[in-house]
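Our consortium's second objective concerns turning raw sequence data into structural hypotheses that experimental partners can test. To show how far this objective has progressed, the report includes one record in full. It was chosen at random from the queue rather than selected for favorable results. The single chain below, 518 residues long, was entered without modification.
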Amino acid sequence: MAKRKASKESKRDLPFEAQLWKAADALRSNMDAAEYKHVVLGLIFLKYISDAFEEQHAKLVVEADSGADPEDPDEYRRINIFWVPPEARWSNLRSRAKDPMIGKIVDDAMLAVERDNPTLKGVLPKDYARPNLDKQRLGQLIDLIGNIGLGDAASRSKDILGRVYEYFLSEFASAEGKKGGQFYTPRCVVRLLVEMLAPYKGRVFDPCCGSGGMFVQSEKFVEAHGGRIGDISVYGQESNHTTWRLAKMNLAIRGIEANLGKEHADSFHRDLHPDLKADYVLANPPFNDSDWRGDLLKEDYRWKYGVPPTGNANFAWVQNFIAHLAPAGMAGFVLANGSMSSNQSGEGEIRKAIIEADLVDCMVALPGQLFYSTQIPVCLWFLTRTKGNGRFRKRPGETLFIDARKLGTMIDRVQRELTDKDIELVAGTYHAWRGDKGAKEYADVAGFCKAATLEDIRGHVHILTPGRYVGAADAQDESEPFELAMKNLVSEWRQLSAQSAALDEQISSSLKGLGHGE
């Protein structure tokens, strides 16, 4: 199992989260991380709603002489606290943690919570009684989680639960490796997307929402910049049932109201929000998905810029995002680097049509090793329906290119993170270029950013790789310390090595597909 050290920042923010993870992970035994994820996160969720319930219950007991009824579910629902029936309260679970039947007791608790809270129907895990789940370890896990306050007012004000939950999602993604990328986008990448788009007000949509990280960061952004949480409304969709459940729990613990549909569904073949026109689309779709059944959608209304190839869903996702944008809507999303330059199976023509429609606002090349799911370097696309909507300066025929491949810090042998300064630099450059109110004045920086024209892009045959536009960085100052120069060279060498390995893997996979591999 892959291990990842907590970053210095996360340890400073929440000292016990790494220790909590270490203790919980020690109880995993031989259980696969993909299974154990739901065991742990389900219990954390139940502890959270039970804490909030118990605190309100204690208040109502004191107020009983004034007519309050601590056993009336409406006393809780009216202040947006989940009603927790007696058999599901944490005090009951903890008192029976050593009971050989603890698995069934937890399952019954989950069923009771869903029964009495319709918004959670079909969301909570209910497989704790299965034979391969060690009941002694389950009891120990209940005792461990029971030591942490998660849902009382003091803990909620510090977002203790949200941060523990997010940390655990991150660690499970790391433990699962490639599979983990299906439900979790690294926090720093989500933060960069959100900071660049700046969704202050309107409808936010993610048609491949994973565990809901885009929505969480969007609400954090609004709150951090003095806005009102209710100013944005959240819509999402997720094709994987267990991941859809994670998203529902992740949003419920934060009190975020979201329309994720009544169930999981495939965005291409069963769009749950067909009439939605979003002000912001934020997404991290599966990279280079070859199993999206595109042959069944040849005549789909969304393919305004060209029919996407059945062997790669990248431009199916791009056109799906565009189809859901409001007249002044903007989209920010992650794609594999190949999307910027590929000419296979008509992808180049689709990209050209999107560029010629003047939809591409900004392109950002990211460093490698940011994702758990792949070592392949990725990029960020930013599209806008109009480059003259009055919110920013008029910029028709212009596109900003940012080469951020040299940014980021290695937090262990295989994983890189973008720092706060990195995020501020990239987002600030974009805001300066598009003319956000209060932003700094924009200027091209050799090797980092370039404001290009449509003619420039045509000159590069509609290839959107930032490195083609930003040019080489200014000559290195000869007074630069040797240690710093060496560090930069080693970092670049590692990045190029990772890219080389990824390309070798892609070539090998392609050869196997042609019958030339082992």
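The partners drew two points from this record. Confidence is low (pLDDT under 50) at residues 1-14, 475-482. The longest helix spans residues 482-513. Both points have been shared with the crystallography group to help prioritize constructs.
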